[in-house]
Every structure is written in C-alpha cells, then in structure tokens.
Design a protein that fits this description.
The protein is mainly alpha-helical and 131 residues long. The protein folds into two domains: 71 residues, no CATH class; 35 residues. Helix content is 85%, strand content 0%. Helix 2 packs antiparallel against helix 3, helix 2 packs across helix 4 and helix 4 packs antiparallel against helix 5. The longest helix has 33 residues. The model has no long low-confidence stretch (mean pLDDT 81).
Length: 131
C-alpha cells in the first residue's frame, strides 16, 4: 500500500509528456545563467572593494556592463531566471497538494501567494537600493 502511495506521489510530479524543444533548452540554460549572474556580481563586488581603496575599478565595471554583448547576456539570463521562477512556482503546488480534494483552488492561491511574496521582496529591495 505504501509503495502505491509513493507511485501516486511520483506520478503527480513526473509526467511522461516530452516538453517542447524551447522549454528543454531553457531548462538546460538555467545553471549557465545563474553562473553568469554570480560572476558578474562577484566582479562588481571586487570592483567596489578596490574602488574604496582609491582606484577607479568601479568605472571599469560600469563600462563592462554597458558592453552590448554583456547587455544581451544579462537579458538572456533575466529571461531564463523568470522562466525558472515560473516553472518552480507551478511545480511546487503539485508536490504539496497531491492528495487534497480542492487541489485547483489551493494551487492557484499558492502560486499567487508565491508571486506576491516575490514581487513584495523585489519592490522592497528596489526601494532600499534607490534610497
């Protein structure tokens, strides 16, 4: 009986349907975009630290960010991270509410709640940065 419950839980999460090609590519790009953003942020922190010592490294970082190649890579990383958020927010209710009866309503409320928390934290960070 326990094995059957585990199989039902896995069936709710895993599907045999093959995702479209572009979605499969986006799933493969998630680690690379996260590595890219991490490297850019580390470079910015290093430049800010050396700028505090008295060098003009931060201006090099700004010019690096204004490069068209870097702008395109940052836009791709932003799109991939938004896709990643959407796919995670849609998959979380499937794992949490696998046995409950009113699953659709709870799923939508949970997804909306996750998005509201994400938007709230983003706005708070934006207001903190703009101070």
């Amino acid at each position: 009986m326990n094995q059957q419950n585990n199989n039902n839980r896995l069936a709710a999460v895993q599907t045999d349907a093959k995702p479209p090609f572009i979605i499969a590519i986006m799933n493969k790009l998630v680690p690379f975009s996260m590595i890219w953003i991490s490297l850019v942020l580390m470079y910015g922190v290093v430049c800010m630290y050396t700028n505090a010592i008295g060098q003009d490294e931060f201006y090099r970082f700004i010019f690096f960010l204004r490069s068209p190649f870097v702008v395109v890579l940052n836009c791709i990383a932003l799109l991939v991270s938004v896709f990643h958020s959407i796919s995670w927010f849609n998959s979380v209710p499937k794992t949490i509410f696998s046995y409950h009866t009113d699953k659709k309503t709870k799923s939508y409320l949970f997804i909306v709640g996750l998005w509201l928390v994400t938007i709230f934290v983003s706005v708070c960070l934006l207001l903190f940065i703009l101070k």
